[in-house]
Structures are given as structure tokens and as C-alpha cells.
Design the sequence.
């Protein structure tokens, strides 16, 4: 029977057409590929190749074998993924979150209840979180809204409110609140790892240009050394001596977070739902 790797070589040969390219792709010697092709023919028990003095190519039986092996590889990959995911789920509590910050108390409660398990968190968009929960990629997710399906258990877990962080010299720095529309058209700093907030402000401020930063350190340095406004929330607001946080008046930036799991897992995670 062909090994997983030998099936990969055969399918790759069907796609690339030469033994040399397959050897380069898998960083192995060409004789290894040649032996795998010979073993494939022996395994199927029928001729799979048209041979000339200097080359081989797949005949019709070989092309069929390649298509079937491609399907088998895909099925094998799916099985490996599901089994590994199941094992990970038994050892790890995977939390997918739309919130760019840790929800106070959640990790601590899970750690007390499941001291033998590790806890991983991942920032994703809400649609991806729902899909991940359905596919058991996550055991728990945090959404900025209540999902429509009645197949989930849901608990309100926290709130977050977006604010502008303005230089004290900014014309609106004295304001008690400020709308997104009033700031539309200004250039702003934007940290990339803020989840759904980025889409929200881009849509609400179509005339603004955003200087996006992917690294937290670089973002903080720009806050300290530039005069560009940026965003913070009441959960992430770090004090800067030359800046002032001004709440945003738009209702859309006042978000309630909900902890969600499948109803079938409700009892398992009662420690964070009760």
C-alpha cells in the first residue's frame, strides 16, 4: 500500500509532469520519486505510465489513479484535522473573541474550573467566530451582539465604549463628547489589531485617511510623538500626558459583549455562565 507521502508524490507528478519538479517541491532525491512511481504501479497492478527512453507520463489509468488519490489525500487531511482538533479541544479551551482586550475575570474563572487545561485566545471577526464555534474550532466565543440562532447559550459578559484620543492642542480636545461625523475627514492613527472596530470607524468616516500600525510598540510611539488623533476604549485607555480621551457620542460605538457556547456545552462551562 502507498504511504501518505508516496500518494503526495504521485499526485504532484500528475500536476507538475516531471520527476525533477516533484523532487524539488518536496526537497528529496529524484530516485526516491522514481521508486514511489514504481511502487504506485505495483500497488495498482496495472500500467500507469507511458514510457519513452528519457521520460515517463501518465496514461489514462494513471490520470484516473491521480484523481482518486487526490480525493483520498483530501479525505485523509480532513480526518487528521478533525482528530487533532478533537485532541486539542480535550486539552485546550479555545476562545475566539471579537473583543481586542481580555474580558475581566473570564480567564481566571476558566483557569480555576479547568486547572489541567491550557487556554488560548484569538481575535477574529464575528462571522468567523460563529463559523469557528460551529466547526468546534472554538469552545467559547465573545460576540458584540446576541446571535440569532437558538442553538446557543448566551451570557452578557461586559461592555466597551470607543473614544477619540486627541492631542491637548486639538480643536476638539475640550469637548465632553464628539461624533464620528465631526471627525470625518481628519487623518488618524489606527492600530490594526482591534477587530471589528476598524471596519466600524472606516465605514463611519469615509473621508478620513488612516495611518495603520501593525505593531503595538510602533503605535504607542506614534501616539507619544505625533499630533494625529487615534482611538482608545474605556478598557484600553492608557494615560498619555499630552492627550485627552473624548467619548464618542454615536450609539454604534457603545458595545455590549456576550459570551456564547453551544447549548450542548452549557453544562461543561457552567462556571462562566452561572
Sequence:
Amino acid at each position: 500500500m502507498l504511504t501518505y507521502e508516496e500518494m503526495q508524490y504521485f499526485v504532484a507528478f500528475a500536476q507538475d509532469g516531471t520527476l525533477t519538479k516533484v523532487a524539488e517541491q518536496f526537497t528529496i532525491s529524484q530516485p526516491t520519486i522514481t521508486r514511489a512511481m514504481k511502487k504506485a504501479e505495483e500497488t495498482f497492478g496495472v500500467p500507469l505510465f507511458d514510457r519513452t527512453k528519457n521520460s515517463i507520463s501518465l496514461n489514462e489509468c494513471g490520470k484516473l489513479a491521480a484523481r482518486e488519490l487526490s480525493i483520498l489525500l483530501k479525505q485523509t487531511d480532513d480526518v487528521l484535522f478533525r482528530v487533532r482538533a478533537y485532541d486539542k479541544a480535550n486539552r485546550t479551551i479555545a476562545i475566539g473573541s471579537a473583543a481586542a482586550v481580555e474580558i475581566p475575570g473570564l480567564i481566571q474563572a476558566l483557569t480555576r474550573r479547568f486547572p489541567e487545561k491550557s487556554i488560548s485566545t484569538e481575535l477574529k471577526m464575528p462571522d468567523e467566530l460563529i463559523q469557528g464555534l460551529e466547526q468546534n474550532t472554538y469552545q467559547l466565543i465573545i460576540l458584540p451582539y446576541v446571535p440569532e440562532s437558538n442553538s446557543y447559550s448566551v451570557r452578557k459578559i461586559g461592555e466597551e465604549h470607543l473614544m477619540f484620543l486627541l492631542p491637548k492642542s486639538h480643536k476638539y480636545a475640550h469637548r465632553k463628547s464628539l461624533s464620528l461625523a465631526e471627525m470625518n475627514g481628519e487623518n488618524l492613527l489606527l492600530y490594526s489589531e482591534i477587530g471589528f472596530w476598524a471596519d466600524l470607524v472606516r465605514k463611519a468616516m469615509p473621508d478620513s485617511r488612516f495611518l495603520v500600525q501593525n505593531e503595538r510598540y510602533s503605535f504607542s510611539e506614534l501616539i507619544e510623538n505625533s499630533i494625529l488623533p487615534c482611538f482608545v476604549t474605556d478598557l484600553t485607555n492608557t494615560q498619555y500626558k499630552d492627550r485627552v480621551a473624548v467619548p464618542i457620542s454615536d450609539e454604534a460605538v457603545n458595545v455590549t459583549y456576550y459570551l456564547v457556547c453551544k447549548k450542548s456545552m452549557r453544562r461543561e462551562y457552567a462556571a462562566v455562565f452561572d
User: Anything to note?
Assistant: The chain has ten helices and eleven strands. The CA atoms of residues 91 and 117 lie 5 Å apart. Residues 160-254 form a domain with the D-Maltodextrin-Binding Protein; domain 2 fold (CATH 3.40.190.10).
